[in-house]
Structure formats: structure tokens, C-alpha cells
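User: Reviewer 2 asked us to show a designed sequence for the structure in our supplementary figure. I'm pasting the C-alpha cells here. Could you produce the per-position amino acids so we can include them in the response letter?
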């Protein structure tokens, strides 16, 4: 049986993240906005993974919910196949490589921040 509280926090977080993504895409339409959103979301998710700790509901709300709704693989994929081959290749490389690096940088920043907080305590 599915627990209702985790589903609710993911749904609320997802709605918030998707609403922010939609607003940004409306303000600045185009594939490059989706690229920035996905890279920023990867950075934030990497940081979150290190900082939130074991609290399941916060991880679900912020990670799967907010950042899952904010970032978008499906729009990225649809945008890529809708472009000419050269633009699509640049777009894919310019999204995936920075997104992976951003996730790692977020994890490193979160790890350092967590260690600094621990040392200060």
C-alpha cells in the first residue's frame, strides 16, 4: 500500500518546481533556457544530496518533488530531436556534460558545507 504523506510531499514539491520551470520558460522561451534549468537543477540536487541527510520527507519534497519538477528530461529530449543535427549535438553535449559536472560540484559544495557546520558545532 502506498503511503499518502510521501506521495503528497512529492506532488506539492513537483507542482512548485514545474511552476517555476514553466514561468522561466515563458519568460525566456527556447532550448537554452531548458539547458540552464537542467544544469542548475543538477547543481542543486547534488548539493541537496549531501545536505539534507536522512530525512526522507525532505529528500522526497526537495529532490524528487521540487527539483524533479523543475528539471525536465522529456523537454530536453523533445527539444533535441526537434533541432537540426548540428544544433541538437551541441545542445545534448552542452546539457549533459555541464549537468553531470554541476551535480558533482553541488555534491562537493554540500559535503564541504556539512563538514564546516560539523566542525563549528
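Assistant: Here is a per-position design you can include in the supplement:
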Amino acid at each position: 500500500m502506498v503511503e499518502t504523506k510521501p506521495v503528497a510531499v512529492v506532488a506539492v514539491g513537483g507542482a512548485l518546481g514545474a511552476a517555476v520551470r514553466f514561468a522561466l520558460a515563458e519568460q525566456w522561451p527556447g532550448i537554452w533556457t531548458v539547458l540552464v534549468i537542467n544544469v542548475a537543477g543538477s547543481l542543486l540536487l547534488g548539493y541537496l544530496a549531501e545536505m539534507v541527510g536522512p530525512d526522507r520527507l525532505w529528500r522526497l519534497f526537495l529532490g524528487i518533488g521540487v527539483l524533479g519538477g523543475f528539471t525536465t528530461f522529456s523537454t530536453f529530449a523533445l527539444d533535441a530531436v526537434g533541432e537540426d543535427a548540428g544544433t541538437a549535438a551541441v545542445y545534448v553535449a552542452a546539457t549533459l556534460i555541464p549537468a553531470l559536472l554541476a551535480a558533482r560540484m553541488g555534491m562537493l559544495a554540500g559535503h564541504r558545507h556539512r563538514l564546516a557546520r560539523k566542525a563549528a558545532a
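For the response letter, you might also mention the following. The first helix runs from residue 4 to 27. The mean pLDDT is 93.
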